[in-house]
Amino acid sequence: MPAPHDRRVAALASHVSPPGLPGLAPNPTSTPRVTDRVGGFTVAVLGAAGGIGQPLSLLLKQNTLVAALNLYDVANVAGVAADISHVNTPAHVRGFAGPAQLGAALAGADLVVIPAGVPRKPGMTRDDLFAVNAGIVSTLVDACATHCPRAIVNVISNPVNSTVPIAAEVLKRRGCFDPRKLLGVTHLDVVRARTFVAEAKGLDPAGVDVPVVGGHAGATILPLLSQTRPFPRDGFTPEEVAFLTNRIQNGGTEVVEAKAGAGSATLSMAAAAAQFADACLRGLAGARGVVECAFTLHAPTFGNVLKGDKDAPAFFASKVQLGRHGVERHLGIGRLDAGEKRGLEIAKKELAASVAKGVAFVADAEKAASSAERGARDAGRRDARAAAGTFHAAGPA
Ligand code: NAD
User: Fold this and answer.
1) Pocket lining: 50 vs ligand 1, CB cutoff 6 Å
2) pTM confidence score
């Protein structure tokens, strides 16, 4: 049994373990101080050193439901972990750098939040990020299947309309897809809708709710202003509906342009992701009545929220009730007004194409991997034959 002083030094040192520094235990093997806290959860943030990852990790460090906070990135994560670990809240913070430490970052995770990947620059759509982020998300989710197959996964990396279907396909192939536990984070659209509606109507944004359904890109973002609660006494004029819908759909672009090449929404996204992660954790902890909008598989597993609609895309953002296993119930999209119905038709088509693109990415990657494997096997056989030929040619007379 180490002396209390040694235990304290080991605990303090556990988050700063640059490889090769003598006397410090390597991060991934350090013992968290508080994993036995009642109700405490282990949360892993993948992409923790990024623009979203850093403030998100800081906010999660302040969440009293979090007992262990594992911060993973391919770059610069040791400093972020050391910095955040000094905040005087109980969550135990550890940093994990690079693929060799990914498994340790994920082991025992109850919730994995993924903001890893490249953000937009002015002039780019979220779909322009597909080429890079599809591979990142699929690799990270594959690691989740190995190291924490029962964890809830929150996907932030864009384009969410495709990266969530990619994650689902990867998990299916690994035999551990539980649609209740895979959630695309569209909560920033809800956060924006609450803020913009409150501003327009002179309300307190903390007391306003506006469901935003569909997906998380341009026209697939469908704010349901007609379901605003509390509904403004003077309602919305057609001009207000057009202005607010457009601003909510293009809020991300507003930030991308204002940042002028320095990235996309990070701080508001971190706030949104932290609120959403907190909702997932409250659900896991058994709280009742936790309801948020999220982008999930909704058909056929949960029944079709777009009742009887044969063109409904397999993934769709709608209100869901969160519980001990993730999504417990889809609450549907309620009654839409005429403008929202028109918006829904546009959103559905675009969503179906984005979902199909994600599904095709995983199928193509699988084909490429098996043909590479066949190629390697054939090359191996050719080498063996050539070696045998050499042996016969040079072998004993
Ligand atoms: P960023 O470039 O600042 O940070 C990304 C981080 O991911 C970096 O630290 C990078 O090192 C890390 N990373 C890259 N590849 C990785 C890998 N294979 N494993 C682990 N980490 C890896 O970008 P950001 O501004 O934080 O945005 C991150 C993502 O979130 C982008 O795809 C962006 O489009 C998306 N986003 C989503 C929403 C949403 O509402 N869902 C909102 C804003 C941004």
Assistant:
1) yes
2) 0.88
224 has a pLDDT exceeding 50: yes
Residue carrying the six token digits 């919305």? 236
pLDDT at 140 over 60: yes
Phi-psi label, residue 294: left if phi above 0, alpha if psi -120 to 50, beta otherwise: beta
- Mean pLDDT to the nearest integer, 277-306: 86
What is residue 95's three-state secondary structure?
strand
> Nearest to residue 28, comparing CAs of 139, 86, 105, 85?
105
User: Is residue 185's pLDDT more than 80?
Assistant: yes
Question: For residue 330, what are its two tokens?
Answer: 């889809």
Atom 14, ligand 1: residue with shortest CA distance: 117
Rounded CA-CA distance 231/51 in Å is: 35
Would you kindly state where each structural domain of the chain is located, as residue ranges?
Answer: 11-17+37-184, 187-358
* Ligand 1 neighbour 56 (Cβ under 6 A): no
Supply the mean pLDDT for the chain.
Answer: 88
Nearest-CA residue for atom 9 of ligand 1:
50
Q: What is the DSSP string of 26-91?
A: -GGGSPPSSTTSTT-EEEEEETTTSTTHHHHHHHHHT-TTEEEEEEEESSSHHHHHHHHHTSSSS-
Superfamily (CATH H level) for 11-17+37-184: NAD(P)-binding Rossmann-like Domain (3.40.50.720)
Q: Does domain 187-358 have CATH number 3.90.110.10?
A: yes
CA of 54 to the centre of ligand 1 (A): 10
Closest CA to 55 of 139, 113, 14, 126: 113
